[in-house]
Amino acid sequence: MEKRWNILKADSATVTALQEQLKISPILCELLVQRGIVDFDAAKKFFRPQIEHLHSPWLMKDMKKAVERIQTAFDKEEKILVYGDYDVDGTTSVALVYSFLSSFYDNLMYYIPDRYKEGYGISIQGIDRAKKEGVDLIIALDCGIKANEKIEYANSLKIDFIICDHHRPGKKLPPAVAILDPKRSDCEYPFKELCGCGVGFKLIQGLSEKRGIDFNEIGEYLDLLAVSIGADIVEMTGENRALAFYGLKIINQSPRVGLKALIEKSGKTGELSISDVVF
Questions:
Q1: Which 3 state secondary structure label does DSSP give 176?
Q2: Per-position DSSP letters for 106-158, written without gaps between them
Q3: DSSP state string for 54-84
Q4: CA-CA distance, 35 to 188, in Å (whole number)?
Q5: CA gap 15, 29 in Å, rounded
Q6: Which residues pair with 109 in a beta bridge?
Q7: Which end of the chain is more exposed for a tag (fewer CB within 10 A), N or C?
Q8: pLDDT (tens digit, 9 = 90+) per residue, 150-182?
Q9: Average pLDDT over residues 247-260
């Protein structure tokens, strides 16, 4: 197989200027410049990510609609189903959103489709199960952005959908109540490379702000998000870098029961890197 390599080049003057600011190896500075990190402030964000670097969830298209629809479900005591795909990104998304909602709301269930019987994404079987269980609202995580016909079917059954996805939409968006996806052409959210669990986290960030819940109370779910960011191989830059950094701290310092069991089973000792978590 013929391979064509595109070798990134770094402007030598920019590398020299960055090296003078950072006082580190010129080779590291060249690697940074190749990645678009060309000044002290950008390098500081890269090496020392902070929670303050996160963007407001309200910058995401349809966030207000999504939060208001969920709040309506709370007020009317409607049944909510948290629906996620069967891969790591989908399952961590479900665990994150379900755990957050269940901390203050009881009329709730979750659903993960069978890989072999239902396949990827939203399924008719899943919607039928929701109808049977009396579900009024489905929050779809890491899937749904192209499930137009499935969501039309759900609408015919009087079931509303909120979609939290990170895949590229088709030409026509599905008829959901709200669609959170930074890759929407009409979404001005500054960071486009969130994983599905990341979009789910932005949703609970918006909900927590609406309900006056301190960020520290949702920060405990960043371990799940770090697993998702690593396993879904999204860019380890920008918002993902800050979220993974703090999530990894939780995994190393006080892992939840499930992750602790996996760590013990792996036989890995010492501090875990993001590569260890992915493995």
A1: coil
A2: -SEEEE---TTTT-SS--HHHHHHHHHTT--EEEEES--TT-HHHHHHHHHTT
A3: SPPGGGSTTHHHHHHHHHHHHHHT--EEEEE
A4: 23
A5: 6
A6: 81
A7: N
A8: 999 999 999 999 999 999 999 999 999 999 999
A9: 95
